[in-house]
Design brief:
It is a single chain. The protein is an all-beta fold. It contains one helix and twelve strands. It has a ten-stranded antiparallel sheet with strand order 1-2-3-6-7-8-9-10-11-12, with no helix packed on it. It starts with a strand and ends with a strand.
């Protein structure tokens, strides 16, 4: 199985005196997974993942760059088991449990703020081994209403990072759809907020054109 997901969105605020616009959604996710039948609904699996972004990442009223294309680039090589039950047409579910996972983080930029942001001053690469869990599902709740869920968890047994992403999409017509998107992210290594602790949260409601082929 191979998949590529790309997302790029922008926002602008009058309170930001440094930028005309900044990105509010920006990611590139590629995954390649090879499965071999084990027993019943379980497969042996080997997967390769790579995650980065398109554009420089800024903060409001701050001209410094905190992330960029290939800065960072996270690459995972994982071995484990994949639970994939048989569901109705158009619906799917996959639960990967990878007890052995290798993570490589690469920063392809000389910006000091990016290296400091990711705790990598004086080095461009960082390696770790740990356990990784991936969950992906697509369910048709009612006619024209689709729920997609993605859960990601990785621990090196020194730190934990994870994401829970939910999308509710409703097709108003053949070409117009609306979507409610929410994402929770947890990272106890780098991020801390006085209100949310190590959590980050984002949500948006969108209305746009849709074409499937």
């Amino acid at each position: 199985d191979n998949s590529l997901e790309m997302c790029l969105g922008f926002t602008t605020t009058t309170s930001d005196s440094c930028h005309t616009y900044i990105t509010n959604s920006d990611w590139i996710r590629f995954k390649s997974k090879l499965n071999m039948k084990a027993i019943k609904k379980w497969d042996y699996t080997v997967s390769l993942e790579a995650n980065t972004q398109f554009m420089p990442g800024y903060r409001t009223n701050d001209k410094r760059t905190y992330s960029n294309f290939l800065a960072p680039l996270d690459v995972f090589l994982s071995v484990g088991m994949d639970f994939r039950p048989s569901l109705k047409s158009g619906q799917s579910m996959s639960l990967e449990i990878n007890p052995l996972s290798y993570k490589l983080r690469y920063i392809g930029s000389d910006e000091e703020t990016i290296h400091r942001q990711y705790g990598m001053l004086g080095k461009d690469t960082e390696e770790s081994f740990g356990t990784k869990i991936n969950y992906n599902s697509t369910f048709k709740l009612v006619k024209n209403l689709i729920w997609k869920c993605r859960f990601y968890y990785y621990t090196s047994y020194e730190y934990v990072e994870g994401e829970l992403e939910n999308r509710l999409s409703y097709e108003l017509s053949k070409y117009i759809s609306t979507e409610l998107f929410t994402i929770w992210r947890y990272d106890d290594r780098r991020y801390y907020d006085d209100n949310l602790g190590h959590f980050q949260f984002k949500e948006y409601l969108s209305l746009g054109l849709n074409y499937s082929f």
